[in-house]
Amino acid sequence: MSETNPGTIVSADKADQERRGLMLVLSSPSGAGKSTIARLLLEQEDNLELSISVTTRPRRSSEVHGVHYNFLEPKQFEKMKEHDELLEWAEVHGNYYATPRGPVEEAIQNGRDILFDIDIQGTFQLYEKMREDVVSVFILPPSIAEMKSRLHRRAEDTEDVILKRLETAVGEMKHWSEYDYVVVNDDLERALGNVRAILRAERLKQKRSPAIGPLIDGMVQDLEDALKGGA
């Protein structure tokens, strides 16, 4: 009896292991709740890590260096920019924010997904450099009244800063249509579930799984060989 050829076996694990990582971008006007959604995503999703931005903004009392941001002096920031070490950068309310290039590119190549909690300026710069790797989600509050209430409850900014954030929100919200997805955060659990569904679907896109094509080609060849053998 001749030995049966097992043929090509498509392994979901193998496809996932060889998958190219993605950049999940969350943006929103201040007070929409994206930071809370980002935190819960990191707690509940495997293979998802936060891109730690650098900033020249003074550290808030509730923030930890290296966890929330890497806090830099303006001279340090300028040096990184001059050496092309930043994937994106933006000036917000008189302070600079940026994403270091090296850690992100390494993670994506190794199949790890990176979460970005950044504004629209940073998002559009990522579009320019790595659009195929970016999945962008714009988080909206259920109403302006609720957004203002959340900013006041946060109790981290002065009234002048809150006013500036609200003024900035006008321009930000006009760019909603340039994002891949829009999620309204009227219910945190539902909004989180929607973002997780987006992440799962994007991970399955064929363009992120280079191993799938060769595996399917092998299966087709096995089928053709089997049909020839049975003829």
From TrEMBL:
The gene is gmk. GO terms for cellular component: cytosol. It is found in: Cytoplasm. It comes from the Bacteria. The keyword ATP-binding applies. The keyword Cytoplasm applies. HAMAP family: Guanylate_kinase. This is Guanylate kinase. Residues 21-200 form the Guanylate kinase-like domain.
